[in-house]
Write a structure and sequence with these properties.
The complex is a heterodimer of chains A (495) and B (144). By secondary structure, chain A is mainly alpha-helical. Chain A has 21 helices and 2 strands. Chain B has one domain. Chain B is 73% helix and 0% strand. Chain B has helices at 5-27, 36-54, 56-62, 65-88, 103-134. Classes of the chains: A mainly alpha (495), B mainly alpha (144).
Chain lengths: 495, 144
């Protein structure tokens, strides 16, 4: 077999093996080199996989050569390949940034640990995206989550420890609920393979066991993706984690959880028709809209900008869930494309803030007065990504909202469309109050001491900010992939 | 513990047998109850007993942080490496059948090596966890 046939396994195994290599090397620079090199290789492999799917359609890889549904199957279709590319792209860009940022924020003797955890987390996230086995998904969920808890705990002050602990408790509850849900489904069907589950569940969905399984899955994954009102772990975790970790997690962790939701709830349980019958879609819509509005509103009142961005993430997950709750292909495509778009712009915002933290040692809004004049390039990137957050035309934020509103109006739900616009207005407030302080206020004494961020941090920040514009101007590529991914996930759900 | 000769002598007698039993559980895991995880835990418990009776410093000398770190890393690398070996010899990832000319022998070698990696990793990870917790409120050993 050629190496290209092994890509599905390699994309997960390579980062998994890079982690112990980082631990053995121990030298911060060497560990970073391994981590960053691995991340870029994963991006290359993910891109190749996406092209393979685009050219030849979905395919499987059987681990250990045990045939599915008995063995573990890696299933690569449009949806999983798209998530692979999103996760590895964000990881690759953030890994470039991580060297300087981590060197500044974490003590020398622990820096190699960050890089090791980074690649373990990457491995887990890629594994979630690629696996076609419900229990294997749980294993990868835990791999990525455990490394995330440790990464958050490496944060700058002791508050990071409480944040990590809270995240640990809620994340473990989420994982436990997920595995209970899978267990109940397994009890009724005797299989863990997703495709097999989807084929067998319709016959048993009338039982309360299978329905309870679905409920556990929804709550469990809901906790992991910080869907309102299960988001309480998220603001603290993002605010106190090391900057590079915040940027990486904001772009990937919740996105991958949304993918798990899409895969398990829409992909596997969708075929049973229960989503439409049990008013589950309506409940999801209510939760999504509440998350959108409340998340944006709470973001306005935050003094720590990273907390504001974290609450904005809760709102953005709301947009994605809203797209899913429409249960149409257009809605799903809008949600999926927003996964990419939001990953790009939110990571760009966190990277820009990380540069500020490097120079100022603070990201409180009062300390940022006039910082735009001292660090014009970093803050211009923040401005671009912020505008995208609002949804200004020619940015990716606009693309997502356009398709989302279009899908909503297609269903005739104009009050919901109004709420989307209201939430965008709230985004104007929370983005603009930061931008105003940054660019128009008189520089504070602290801000006057700042100089522009080093090139190794500026370039990654602008790579993402540039992508936010690039894919905002020309969204045909991303939309085509998102539509194809939605079509894959909607098979079985029907219209 | 200087004034507790019975404990000290009993520990010195027991530790080798605990380690031996761990090796039995490790290598007999194919045929009887056992396997890498259990063996790793038992092996670690030998060192933990030693640390409880003779003190953390002696235990750390017997099992330095560098050794544990390399053990943990190698454990994972052995496991993943066996999978890659399956790939290099013409099979899929974690396909043990291709590791030897005979399918059955291949499966045997594969699971043997994988369990070895698991045992090593669990042993070093558990002792590290114990040493770190036991060493709280005092100076950490070098590299812990």
């Amino acid at each position: 077999m050629t190496i290209s046939e092994h890509l599905p396994a390699l994309v997960v195994v390579l980062p998994l093996m890079a982690a112990p290599a980082c631990v053995m090397l121990r030298h911060p620079f060497a560990a970073w080199l391994v981590a960053s090199g691995t991340s870029w290789l994963c991006l290359l492999m993910s891109a190749l996989l996406l092209r393979q799917v685009a050219d030849h359609g979905a395919f499987s890889y059987q681990l250990g050569n045990w045939a599915a549904p008995w063995g573990i199957e890696y299933r690569i279709d449009m949806a999983s390949a798209f998530i692979l590319v999103i996760v590895s792209a964000i990881a690759a860009v953030v890994s470039l940034y991580a060297r300087a940022s981590v060197a500044h924020e974490i003590e020398q003797s622990r820096q190699y640990l960050f890089h090791a955890l980074f690649v373990v987390c990457l491995s887990g996230l890629l594994g979630i995206a690629i696996t076609g086995d419900a229990f294997n998904l749980f294993v990868f969920l835990e791999i990525s989550s455990l490394s995330t808890y440790a990464m958050v705990a490496l944060g700058r002050d002791r508050r990071a420890l409480t944040a990590a602990m809270r995240y640990l408790v809620l994340g473990t509850v989420g994982a436990t609920f997920y595995v209970i849900g899978v267990g109940l489904a397994y009890m009724m069907t005797g299989t863990l393979n997703m495709a097999d589950l989807a084929a067998r569940l319709p016959a048993v969905i009338h039982t309360s066991t299978a329905q309870a399984g679905l409920a556990f899955l929804v709550i469990g994954i809901g906790l992991k993706m910080a869907a309102f009102p299960l988001h309480f772990w998220l603001p603290d975790a993002y605010a106190h984690a090391p900057s590079a970790a915040s940027a990486f997690l904001a772009g990937t962790a919740t996105k991958v959880a949304v993918y798990a939701f899409l895969r398990m709830v829409v992909g596997v349980f969708g075929a049973t028709g229960i989503l439409a019958v049990a008013a589950m879609a309506d409940m999801l819509m209510v939760v999504a809209v509440l998350g959108m509005v409340v998340g944006s509103a709470v973001a306005i009142w935050q003094t720590d900008i990273r907390r504001a961005l974290a609450y904005s993430s809760v709102a953005q997950i709301g947009y994605v869930l809203l797209g899913i709750s429409l249960l149409t292909e257009a809605g799903l495509a809008a949600g999926i494309v927003h996964l990419f778009n939001h990953a790009v712009m939110k990571s760009a915002l966190f990277l820009a803030l990380g540069s500020v933290f490097l120079r100022l040692g603070s990201v409180r809004i009062a300390d940022l007065a006039g910082i735009g004049r001292r660090m014009p390039l970093s803050m211009a990137a923040f401005l671009v990504a912020g505008l995208s957050m609002i949804g200004v035309p020619l940015t990716v934020g606009f693309v997502s909202k356009w398709y989302l509103v279009e899908a909503i109006l297609h269903k005739g739900l104009w009050p919901v469309a109004v709420l989307v616009l209201l939430s965008s207005l709230l985004a104007v407030v929370y983005v603009w109050r930061v931008v105003e302080v940054m660019w128009f206020a008189k520089p504070s004494a602290l801000a006057l001491t700042a100089v522009e961020a080093p090139l190794s941090m500026l370039v990654p920040t602008w790579m993402l900010a540039g992508a936010a514009v690039w894919f905002g101007v020309d969204a045909t590529g991303t939309m085509a992939v998102a539509r194809a991914a939605a079509a894959v996930l909607m098979t079985g759900v029907g219209q | 513990m200087r004034e507790k000769p019975i404990l000290r002598v009993a520990t010195k007698l027991l530790v080798p047998f605990i380690l031996l039993f761990a090796l039995y559980v490790q290598f007999h895991g194919d045929f009887g109850p056992g396997g890498g995880f259990q063996a790793g835990v038992i092996f670690a418990s030998g060192f933990i007993l030693y640390a409880l009776v003779f003190g953390l410093d002696f235990a750390r000398d017997a099992l330095p942080a560098a050794v544990r770190r390399v053990g943990m890393s190698c454990g994972v690398l052995i496991y993943a490496g066996v999978g890659v070996a399956g790939m290099l010899t013409g099979g899929r990832y974690l396909d043990y059948s291709v590791l030897a000319a005979d399918r059955l022998a291949g499966q045997h070698i594969g699971i043997f090596l994988v369990e070895l990696g698991v045992g090593l990793c669990v042993f070093t990870a558990l002792t590290t966890i114990f040493f770190v917790f036991a060493g709280r409120n005092r100076d950490l050993g070098p590299g812990d």
